[in-house]
Each structure stands twice: as C-alpha cells, then as structure tokens.
Amino acid sequence: MKTTIKSFLAVIGLIGLVSCGGAEQGSESSTASGESTAETNTPLGQASVVDETSDPNILQVAIGSADHSTLVAAVQAAQIEHVLVNAGPLTVFAPVNAAFDALPAGTVDNLLKPENKATLAGILTGHAAPGSFDVEGLKKEARKGRKLYMASGTYLTVTVEGEDVFVEGAKVIGTIQTSNGIINVVDKVILPG
Fold first, then answer.
1. Which of 80, 82, 160, 163 would be a feasible disulfide site paired with 45, CB 3.0-4.6 Å?
2. Residue 172 contacts by C-beta under 8 Å, 6 or more apart in sequence?
C-alpha cells in the first residue's frame, strides 16, 4: 500500500514538473500577432485592465475627457496611471488643458521629457488626495480650517469665496463622481510652492 501511495505521489509530482516546465523555460510567449508578451506587457498594473462593464474610474474618465488630454499625457509620461485606478477613495484636482496652456511657454514640454519624470510625478501627485472630497466636503474642510493632505506628502489650503471653492488658488469648476473617487475639475495647475 505504501508503495502504491509513493508511486501515485511520484506520478503527481512528475505531472506537476512537466506542466510547470514549459512555463519556466522562458518568460516570453507569443501572441496571435507574433509579438512576444514581453513586448506587449506594460508596468501599468490595474491601469492596463480593460473593463467595459464597471463604472469608469478616475483615469478612464480623464482619458474620455477632451478637456483633460494634457493631464492624461502628463500622467502617462510620469507613469503614474496606477495611482488613478486604485480602489480609493481618491480625490483628484484635474486641471483642464487651458490651465496647462497658461503655464510659462515650454513648461509642459520640459516636464514631459523622460529626465523630468520624477518632478512631473511629484507635481501630479500633488493634485491627488486620499479620501472623497466633493465641493460640499471641501467647504466643510475650509470651515474647519483644515488643509488637505495630498499623495505627494504636501498639504493644500482650501478656501471658499461666496459659492466658489478654491484649492491652493485653483478654482473648482466642476465635480465628477467616479467608481474610485471624485474628480474636481480645476482651472489652474497646482505647483509646489
């Protein structure tokens, strides 16, 4: 009986080695188009998941917005897409294209260069706060005199003037609820001070 059990376990082990052996021979495999998976795989984490049935997340909403094409290009250049697709909740202050256009000439082009990736990532994460802050939530924070903690490790001041809400001088001009948080559309790029 012991010999039968040992033989059975040996066969199972051999089957396991044979079935795993093919995967261990190389980390690349070919797709139908002949490309290797190493060529098509990207380090985007959850940002590379294609899901057309769930409600859109912050990154998907931004990608679908013609007014945020510069922001999306900057997020992609900084390779921080994964930040905008995490479960959240997350609040992103999303500058419109005109806000980037208002920066000094050449600023955006310079920031998009590969050698400035870390600086760009720092600026962009300075636009993202853990938690959910719609306009009413921002007004509450302002009334309490609290600053918002940002993903960059900095704090931003929220002020209210009449019905208008400003975050570090950038006016909130719209709010969009997403599956993983809130996008507050702003009229300025928030730069480190």
1. 82
2. 93, 135, 138, 164, 165, 166, 184, 185, 186
pLDDT tens sequence across 101-122 = 999 999 999 999 999 999 999 9
Q: How far apart are CA 132 and CA 182, in angstroms?
A: 6
**Alpha-carbon span 115 to 154, nearest angstrom:** 23
Contact criterion met (CB below 8 Å) for 72 and 62: yes
Sheet of strand 90-95: strand arrangement: 128-130, 90-95, 181-186, 170-178, 164-167, 155-161, 147-149
Q: How far apart are CA 156 and CA 149, in angstroms?
A: 7
Q: Name the stretches of the chain with pLDDT < 50.
A: 1-42, 45, 47-48
Q: Which helix (H) or strand (E) holds 6?
A: helix 2-24
Which residues make Cβ contacts (< 8 Å) with residue 22, sequence separation at least 6? none
The predicted model scores a pTM of 0.73
Which CATH homologous superfamily contains domain 55-193?
A: FAS1 domain (2.30.180.10)
CA distance 63 to 66: 8
- Tokens standing for residue 95: 């500058």
All structural domains of the chain with their residue ranges: 55-193
